[in-house]
Design a protein that fits this description.
Largest sheet: 3 strands, mixed
Radius of gyration: 19 Å
Order of helices and strands: HHEEHEHHEE
Helix content: 40-55%
CATH class of the largest domain: Alpha Beta
Number of strands: 5
Number of domains: 2
Shape: elongated
Distance between the termini: 53 Å
Length: 119
């Protein structure tokens, strides 16, 4: 990115390794993420873009992770591919409803720590 065709210090990209270290620090500083979800989150940094993948317990944690990562110096874009339990439950329930053999059944769907179950 150029400002008036001159690269300013804020626009000089940090190394992927430095950005990733900042991302891990930012996620670790969040009590809720550290205690419940930290080990289930994978991060990848490439030229100012950070990809978050993995599982979190809640949509609130998913958004918190994205906001914290977006605030890290050197991060320009966050691709939040984290899956919350509620998102997984909805996806499984919709798949079961779309499937002819299970469509007429009454099935309770739940998810915990990225594991889905039906009973």
């Amino acid at each position: 990115m150029l400002a008036d065709n001159v690269l300013i210090p804020e626009q000089i990209g940090r190394s992927n390794r430095a950005v990733l270290a900042g991302v891990h620090d930012a996620l670790w500083e969040a009590d809720g993420l550290r205690s419940l979800d930290y080990k289930d989150i994978e991060a990848e940094a490439r030229a100012g873009e950070v990809f978050l993948r993995g599982h979190v317990r809640s949509v609130i944690h998913k958004h918190d992770a994205e906001q914290r990562v977006a605030a890290v110096r050197g991060v320009e874009v966050v691709h939040n591919e984290l899956v919350a339990d509620a998102d997984l439950e909805i996806a499984v329930a919709q798949a079961l409803a779309a499937n002819q053999p299970t469509r007429a059944s009454i099935l309770r769907v739940g998810a915990s720590r990225a594991l889905s179950s039906r009973w």
